[in-house]
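Sharing in case it's useful to others searching the archive later.

Someone asked me privately for the predicted structure of Nuclear migration protein nudC, so I'm posting the question and my answer publicly. Question first, with the sequence:
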Amino acid sequence: ASSGLWRRLLVDILRKLIRNLNRWSRKLIRNLDWQSVLMASEAEDRFDGLLLRLAEEHTEGGIKELLHTFFGFLRRKTDFYTGVNRGEAEKVVLEAFRKNEALALKAKREKEREKERKEREKEEKKRKEKAASIRTTTDAQPGIMEVTDEEAAEIEREKSEKSAPPTSPPDGPSATPATPSSTQENATDAKENKSSKVKDDSEEEEDEDAKGKLKPNSGNGGDLPNYTWTQTLQEAEVRVPSGVTFPIKGRDVVVDFQPKHLKVGLKGHEPIIDGALYNKVM
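And my answer, the predicted structure tokens:
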């Protein structure tokens, strides 16, 4: 008898839904989560067509009016409220509500986590691209400093001052005649002159050995026609004058630093430095 009652109730619902197929609720359709509908199991979505048509009849009252209609149907056509123990109907409704609420919240959290994951991947990709760009820029300009025309002129002036020969007083014997009272002084002077001569001879020998070699500059490096370099225990610095009168920028500088070869110059100009290195640079 109970199964027959439920069968008749279902037939009544179907008849009512069929009579009202001409009315649609576009507002409700726009708010549906179609992705969730497509992912629902076959057991859940087999009544979606009927329920959608029922919902489309409640465009004015919305979900609240739809619930009133459904619970009113249970009141009028079933013993849902009176056929069970007091409070049992409310318990069934709350259980259904909480179950579906938990599923909805879980789906929302998963959607938010997926969105956060994609954002993290996007930020990580940007960070890696930026780091790679910085490494490429650093590798393209190793150890070469760009100098302005004023700095180049100052370097040339310092080189000229360092290469100028020092002035010395004219050589020659003293014109002061010796006197008996200065005999001891003359002997002392002769001894000092002999010592000075030995020292000068030693310096001349060192100068002979230094011929053909580059004299170190104040930075323990060297000054050459096309560049100047200095060094410390930690690093070596090379300064290359541009030789042009117009302002230059970093992108105008061409640097090709290989393990055994160095090439430095300006775009559209002959290289200022283009030669092999003394030793391989790691």
